[in-house]
Amino acid sequence: MKSCSQEMEWYDLRLKWNPAEYGGVKVLNIPSEKLWKPDLVLYNNADGDFHITLQTKAIVYNTGRIVWEPPAIYKSYCPIDVEYFPFDIQECFLKISSWTYHGVEMDLQHLCNGTVINPEEDPQKAKKVILRGIDLTSYYYNVEWDILNVTALQRAKFYPCCDEPYPDITFNLTLRRRTLFYSLNLIMPCVSISCLTVLVFYLPSDSGEKITLSISILLALTVFFLLLSDMNPPTSLVIPLIGKYLLFIMIIVTMSITFTVYTLHIHFKSPTTHKMSPWVKEIFTELLPKFLFMRRPELHKKPKSSGAVRATNVVALEENSQVLEPLHTYENLVRSRRDVPEAEPSTNYYPPEVMDAIKGVTFIADHLRKADEDIEEERDWKYIAMVMDRFFLYIFTTACLCGTLSIFLTAPSLYDSREHMALKDPNATCIY
């Protein structure tokens, strides 16, 4: 919708008079309803009203020159391209021509002189371009749009039915959206949400709040999607730039939830339910931490061999027991146990009470060794979960940074250094 004052001039030879015969009167203000007026209409009208609503008086000079400047509100159709919203540049046009008169009956021209293009190659396609085709003196700066161009194109169109040309004037308006409001209220919150998505992997691996944080971020993105649907016109041709970014962040959040669930699954694995493969342990505990700048804290490891425990216990028994013979050392005990089948009771060397004690000590040692191995494997699973969290932290940080830059840097308005047109151009060749 455009609110403007349409300045029109034409000559009516029937309204010429000699001022000397009428008391020196050279100018008259006559109601426009009593005069002939050119039937100029807006071809790309959007509301079906092709006429000027307020019929003001016209200024009639004694030479037959008539000046009429009625205020008008035009509602035109302008195709909106929301591909780069909110960093978009829109091209709108106003096509004005006579509804019934052709070029021989009424020569429609712009008040300003312009540059004629293609005058000799094809006269039927000749057109005149006026760089400043709209007077912006009475224009008030818009809080949402910058005017970059107001070119007027004057041309004559030939139809197959007729030999006469049909002139028209097309005003092209180039508008660039001001992005401060959308940057503060839409883009910055979305970028902050993407940063929160990355911080999900910075929480401890056993924290159940990681899922809560991810789902909260997903709900916040849904709210922004609803706001975006109210701001943009409904279209299925293209996806707005901010819509692409929100969709990208939503995919990132969904993937982060998936990987977080898998990381928690890895963290709570136990040796009783899962057996760790050697190549998994090699990659995630030895190789990958070096590239992720991770160092596993050193633990005081207990002896893994149960033979040493058994040897210590047997020696202690031999030193404290009065029934053992000196020749029955640990080496003889081990050798005798290899020679004698396990099914046979070893009553030839020790009393039954001592053998029961040795079996009990051996069982306890094996149980402690197995418990130590299980604890070590549980620590390995938890460490693998930490490595995976650090790996996903780097991956998602890189993806969010590259995705944000690659999406927003495609907007052409970011590279457009043109400024808002001055309301009054002192170098303009056309004086309104």
UniProtKB/TrEMBL annotation:
It is found in: Postsynaptic cell membrane. Residues 186-408 form the Neurotransmitter-gated ion-channel transmembrane domain. The chain crosses the membrane at residues 180-204, 211-229, 245-266, 391-415. It is a multi-pass membrane protein. One of its GO terms (cellular component) is postsynaptic membrane. It holds the Pfam family Neur_chan_LBD. Residues 7-179 form the Neurotransmitter-gated ion-channel ligand-binding domain. CDD domains: LGIC_TM_nAChR. Keywords: Cell membrane, Disulfide bond, Glycoprotein, Ion channel, Ion transport, Ligand-gated ion channel, Membrane, Postsynaptic cell membrane, Receptor, Synapse, Transmembrane, Transmembrane helix, Transport. One of its GO terms (molecular function) is acetylcholine-gated monoatomic cation-selective channel activity. It comes from the Eukaryota. Its main location: membrane. Belongs to the ligand-gated ion channel (TC 1.A.9) family. This is Acetylcholine receptor subunit alpha-like protein.
